[in-house]
Amino acid sequence: MRLPPLNAVRAFEAVCRHGSILKAAEELNVVRGAVRQQIVTLEGYFGRELFARDGRRLVPTAEASAFAEACSAAFDILQRAACELEGGVPGRIRLGVPSAFAVWWLMPRAADMQASLGDVLVDVLPMSMVEPLQMHPELDAVIMGGEYRPAAGITALRFMEDEFGPVATPALAATLSENPAAMGRLTMLASRSAPKLWDEWFAESGTPPVAFSRRQEFEDLLLALGAARSGLGIALAPRASIEDDLQRGQLVAPYGFISRPSGYSLCCRTPDAKRPSFAALSDWLRRCGTRS
């Protein structure tokens, strides 16, 4: 089958990934008109419109979104293959990790991780806004929690269960009754990086939503948990991120934790999943996840 024009595909994929012709043009180092022309070329090739025009915005159709996802996976594979051809896979894994998970779970185990991986270096890059790997071509892998379904060309290797629940200082928790509705007297601490976390806990725990007296938002979960530790209010936390706080008695979970079947996963590009360095990282994560 004849392939579509690859320059047009590249421009199309960049527009879909960035959601912006301007940002796509900046990435490709061309003018916006050139990107628009490539989109027109690709639409002519397929004989259909790939975007719905909403003023100045281009919104990809459902079929175009699926095609863009496949294109992203294909470009990632090509980029990795080119790296090999130029001299082999670098002995370094650029790993995107949720900020709170990195600080309170991964980094205390960093020395053990490095000893297990030998010459393979892992660059841990904290992510305040956790996004799928296909949105980050500069990364080799990411750790995802919650309900995540890998895209085409991405392999998700589950290594640990995920538990979460409301946490507060012992002093604040002592003011609560057994009925979670009592939390309404406290300030709800939320994270913009995980805006649905409280809604998910209410739904999955079977707890009726609570009308809090006040809601305060922070840029990421790391800051929300820091606010909870200071006694500002009550936060919703993954257990893995606050295990040390629980052991020291700095935070308590007045209503316990509930398990999420999806757990935490190491997500990498499918061709990388069988490479020795990624297999070693995955094995180490599984060992530590089992002990946690």
TrEMBL record:
InterPro entries: LysR-type_TF_proteobact-type (IPR058163), LysR_HTH_N (IPR000847), LysR_subst-bd (IPR005119), WH-like_DNA-bd_sf (IPR036388), WH_DNA-bd_sf (IPR036390). One of its GO terms (biological process) is DNA-templated transcription. It comes from the Bacteria. The keyword Transferase does not apply. The keyword Transcription regulation applies. PROSITE patterns: HTH_LYSR (PS50931). Keywords: DNA-binding, Transcription, Transcription regulation. PANTHER family: HTH-TYPE TRANSCRIPTIONAL REGULATOR, HTH-TYPE TRANSCRIPTIONAL REGULATOR TRPI. Belongs to the LysR transcriptional regulatory family. This is Transcriptional regulator. It comes from Rhizobium leguminosarum bv. trifolii WSM2297.
